[in-house]
Design a protein that fits this description.
Methane Monooxygenase Hydroxylase, Chain G, domain 1, 13 helices, globular, dioxygenase, L-tryptophan 2,3-dioxygenase activity, iron, metal-binding, metal ion binding
Length: about 280
Amino acid sequence: MGEPHTPYDPAADGAQMAFDGRMSYGDYLALDKVLTAQSPLSSAHDEMLFIIQHQTSELWMKLALHEMTAAKAAIASGNLPPAFKMLTRTARIFDQLNSAWDVLRTMTPSEYTTFREALGQSSGFQSYQYRAIEFLAGNKNAAMLRPHAHVPEVHDWLTRLQRETSLYDEAIALLARSGFKIDADHLARNHADPYQANDSVRDAWIAVYRDPAKHWPLYELAEKLVDFEDYFRRWRFNHVTTVERVIGFKRGTGGTSGVTYLRRMLDVVLFPELWALRAEL
């Protein structure tokens, strides 16, 4: 028989094992707050899954907003390399969010009905961070401010984002600063209004794509934007599929038409000229 196995002691390699008066992993991440933020309102086993799915999604969306806000500022200042990294990270965040739907889809309609009434009128439709992401990306709709009127600071923040330039607005302004002829009235449009595709913007992007070597930074910016929208569309599609699988065509808890409403959102195109030009090259 061999020698008795001696359990490994990390302290022997210098690992800190005592944290009295020192900051620990749990302290840094405030895990006492994060891990006690789940408060199911029913005795249903699957409500914990539902809560954690949505809480973690909101954490990822917080990071997406952090990256998108910084990317917008970088594009506005013409500092594109950091913007590329931030947009790439945002796209990967939505890839992560896509994977989360796979976990939620393990919940069956029967299991969801055991706690659905406990949700009251709460719905993902009311996520103010998701609304902020849409506004930053350029999908402006003033009607979507109304569900947040009961929280003035949130409503004010979203109103500001709705009225400010979007990521795409800043990319178009950069096209103009780079010498491309963009219609003046398009540049001066009311940024609170829903975005409408513009021929001068399309023509500018076509010129960029026809000579990538000459316009490489703008070409790369365009592809980073398309990459983000690609993953964002996948997230929307997976949302629709998951909701249809779990509740079918019932109305949503927040009063929307559920799957029908979500399918309508699939038709929204954030950066229309960047998609349209592909048929013209």
